[in-house]
């Protein structure tokens, strides 16, 4: 193997990355993966304790990061962060829009408060972050934007109706933005995770019966980990994927595909 070529292809050395929702779960894993590949990562999140844990994990692996308490549903706070960041760092090379909330319910059971919370955070907060960083990347004529959506945005899940519809809308926004930004040398893609076990859903998957039932639905026979998503993000923002934009990378162990049917033995 040509080690020098591999390092050149996947290295993010010297790049500045911003990850929202970096205080836990998938966001933490994304931050760690980017830092492992050499990026200096701005960790954005609402939990000071959670961000500190992410920082410790990044630094334990020799990575570089900075912590910022930012709730993306607060558009003023987002704008202030980007202005502060650009004043001190001058560039933003990678932006990962990961932060979001999920309130499980079928559409007839969704409350207006639930809808407003998810729209304010998952849609408006994410979209505004994409708009802000696009403006800076347009000026520098380079950059990578990755939106973390969900397979539920590709194939809606009935008991997560509002969440699914918002993720679907973000898929559309990603595709639109990718065309707008292509002439400026900025790539825009999304990653749609499947079932990923995190602290948020651990109470569900710690129940053996439910966990095994879910695993049976996934062709690879297992539930994913946050690191599965983190490493995928680090890969697609590297030069290995330099000609890809406007695409959705589905990381779901094959969940959206139909499993093989058991066939009866052939009659002789």
Overview features:
single chain; 268 residues
- How many helix segments? 9
* Structural class determined from secondary elements: alpha/beta
Strand content: 5-15%
How much helix, percentage-wise, in residues?
40-55%
Q: Could you give a short account of the major beta sheet?
A: 7 strands, parallel
Order of helix and strand elements from N to C terminus = HEHEHEHEHEHEHHHE
Descriptive overview:
This protein is an alpha/beta fold. The chain has helices at 3-10, 25-36, 48-60, 75-89, 112-140, 161-182, 202-205, 208-217, 226-236, and strands at 16-19, 40-45, 64-69, 94-97, 143-148, 186-193, 248-251. The protein starts with a helix and ends in a 17-residue tail after the last strand.
How do you describe this structure in short?
The chain is of the alpha/beta class and 268 residues long.
Task: Please specify the SSE layout and strand pairing.
Blueprint: H1 3-10, E1 16-19, H2 25-36, E2 40-45, H3 48-60, E3 64-69, H4 75-89, E4 94-97, H5 112-140, E5 143-148, H6 161-182, E6 186-193, H7 202-205, H8 208-217, H9 226-236, E7 248-251
Parallel strand pairs: 1-2, 1-4, 2-3, 4-5, 5-6, 6-7
Helix pairs in contact: 2-3, 2-9, 4-5, 5-6
């Amino acid at each position: 193997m040509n080690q020098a070529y591999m390092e050149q292809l996947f290295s993010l050395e010297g790049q500045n990355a911003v990850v929202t929702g970096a205080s836990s779960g998938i966001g933490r894993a994304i931050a760690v993966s980017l830092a492992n590949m050499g990026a200096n990562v701005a960790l954005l999140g609402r939990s000071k304790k959670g961000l500190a844990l992410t920082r410790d994990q990044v630094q334990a692996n020799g990575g570089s990061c900075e912590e910022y308490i930012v709730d993306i549903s607060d558009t003023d706070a987002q704008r202030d962060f980007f202005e502060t960041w650009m004043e001190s760092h001058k560039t933003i090379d990678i932006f990962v829009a990961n932060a979001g909330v999920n309130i499980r319910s079928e559409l007839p059971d969704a409350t207006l408060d639930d809808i407003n919370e998810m729209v304010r955070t998952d849609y408006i907060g994410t979209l505004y972050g994409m708009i802000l960083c696009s403006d800076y990347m347009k000026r520098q004529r380079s950059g990578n934007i990755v939106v973390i959506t969900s397979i539920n945005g590709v194939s809606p899940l009935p008991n997560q109706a509002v969440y699914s519809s918002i993720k679907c809308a973000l898929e559309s926004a990603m595709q639109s933005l990718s065309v707008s930004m292509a002439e400026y040398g900025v790539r825009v893609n999304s990653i749609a995770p499947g079932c990923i076990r995190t602290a948020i859903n651990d109470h569900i998957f710690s129940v053996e019966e439910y966990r095994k039932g879910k695993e049976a639905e996934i062709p690879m026979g297992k539930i994913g980990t946050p690191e599965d998503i983190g490493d995928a993000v680090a890969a697609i923002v590297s030069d290995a994927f330099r000609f890809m934009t406007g695409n959705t990378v589905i990381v779901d162990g094959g969940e959206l595909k139909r499993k093989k049917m058991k066939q009866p033995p052939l009659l002789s």
